[in-house]
Amino acid sequence: MAAQHVEIVEVGPRDGLQNEETPLPPARKVELIERLIGAGARRIEAVSFVDPRRVPQMAGAEEVMAGVPRRADVSYIGLALNRRGLDRALEAGVDEVNVAIPATDGFCRRNQGCSVAEMTDAFAGIAAAAAEAGMPVSATVSTAFGCPFDGETDPERVAEVARRAAEAGAAEVALADTIGAGVPGQVADVIGRVRPVVGEARLRCHFHNTRNTGYANAHTAVAHGVTVLDASVGGFGGCPFAPGATGNIATEDLAFQLDRSGLHTGVDAAETARTGMWLGSVLGAAPTALLGRAGEFPAVRG
């Protein structure tokens, strides 16, 4: 009997880089993506079509998309927050578009300059335009487990944002712990509230390890039927609009955990760890991932 497959969406080239002090030129980002593909990544959040004046680390999205290898088995995701971002994504040739919809007004106003209600309405327009262009679109409900400005997030509001996104055409709805405040019991509760209201849309989860709960949250999500998880090579990342936010759960550490639990990811944890160490040297920052330091287990002996 084949092992259950858990898909890891590699978000390192976008979420992993957006909060780092050292911006990478497009050629380096393409090299990172090539290394990740070599390590088994098949869905990659490659670029963000946001204003580079606000997030300079995301400059050069079009150049990155012009340089990435085009393969039938690799899907590139571009983040867009408005119709202009969608237009750029379509022109650049991404395979999927992801739109972030915060669940809290405090974060939404600081990150996207509007209320949650306004962003939810905007998503409906983006999703309709994407559908007309034949572009798959997903929605990430950010601050789903806590907000740096509003505090606790009402789980019913998360479910309502997710419901409206699915009704507007999101093929996939991601629940994002933007600041790493969530705990396993909370993850189980939110998934239980969201799943009944999103219809056929797939559920995805996006965790940060800010308070050392990210991997436990990922395990809980899988135990509750989620089969798509975001992770960032090396554990790099963090939101520039969330004070104190630290990195995502690391792709290599997550792949190790899932593979050792008898699940299939298709991601080579050891090769991803080597890429994480390489990225750390390029950025001049130490990865938070541990597999690159601890090594494989059982150890590979020559």
From TrEMBL:
Pyruvate carboxyltransferase domain sequence ranges = 6-273
EC identifiers of the protein: 4.1.3.4
In Gene Ontology terms, what is a biological process of this protein?
Answer: ketone body biosynthetic process
The reply to whether Metal-binding figures as a keyword in the UniProt entry is yes
Give an example GO molecular function: metal ion binding
The portions of this protein that span the membrane are none
Q: Which UniProt keywords apply?
A: Lyase, Metal-binding
In terms of InterPro entries, this protein maps to: Aldolase_TIM, HMGL, PYR_CT
Instruction: Return the similarity comment.
Output: Belongs to the HMG-CoA lyase family.
Q: What is the protein's name according to its record?
A: Hydroxymethylglutaryl-CoA lyase
